[in-house]
Amino acid sequence: VSHEVLLYVEGLTVSFDGFKALNDLNLYIDDGELRCLIGANGAGKTTLMDVITGKTQPYSGMAYFGQTHNLLNKNESDIATLGIGRKFQKPTVFEQHTVFENLELSLRMSKAILASIFYRMSSEQSDRIAEVLDIIGLSKQSNQLAGALSHGQKQWLEIGMLLVSDPRLLLVDEPVAGMTPQETEHTAELLTSLAGERTVVVVEHDMAFVRSIAKKVTVLHQGSVLAEGNMDEIQNNPDVIEVYLGES
Length: 248
Ligand code: ATP
Prior knowledge:
Layout: E1 5-16, E2 19-30, E3 34-38, H1 45-52, E4 60-65, E5 69-70, H2 76-82, E6 84-87, H3 99-110, H4 123-136, H5 151-163, E7 169-173, H6 181-194, E8 199-203, H7 207-213, E9 216-221, E10 224-229, H8 231-235, H9 238-247
Parallel strand pairs: 3-8, 3-9, 6-7, 7-8
Antiparallel strand pairs: 1-2, 1-4, 4-5, 9-10
The structure holds adenosine-5'-triphosphate (ATP).
Adenosine-5'-triphosphate binds next to helix 1.
């Protein structure tokens, strides 16, 4: 079975005052994959996400989404419109609004209809919100204020806020930082259930979590790909061993 590449990044270099945060980086992610990106602090993970989402423009290289969409020289909202959603590490839900309202607001913002006083949610949209509530496991909390949720629940709500607009690619930064073991387990189930139908890229430092979710892991080091493979391959890779033992 040949897989279709959804995210195609080649020769990407990003320099900050001569320092290469990304250095001739190549990355290919298949449609439907759940890929984990790991690497020490400063390896370039955030910079890579910034390029994919239009926050940073590279000095050289290319980045394509779904074969035909050039991601470079587009702004962040253009890229969101293409179907790329990004979840930052810290949850930024609207605390004074209910869980349902958070999802509704997100849906309206994604369609730029926030300001319309004539706006009424279609039954299709409210069905989508109900569906997302079910996916993220917060149906029972629908009418609860987001500010009253646990840390883990806020993270799931924020993933839900991306899901309402049905992105093809979800970029998720350190989803389990600060979570309880139970919350971490739920997050693993959530992210693995999202892959397949969509593509999920997770940046994470928690190696037990990475092992529990990813079939394929990419290790970044000094702005390039150091190794790629499943967790066992990564842990037995001589380059990875050398870098990690050398750095500790
Ligand atoms: P972490 O795990 O700490 O988030 P990371 O792998 O995401 O690390 P990046 O944030 O991509 O790493 O940073 C890569 C390198 O580029 C770091 O050395 C960082 O200091 C540098 N860098 C990132 N952004 C800028 C910037 N705007 N100006 C100058 N240097 C930057």
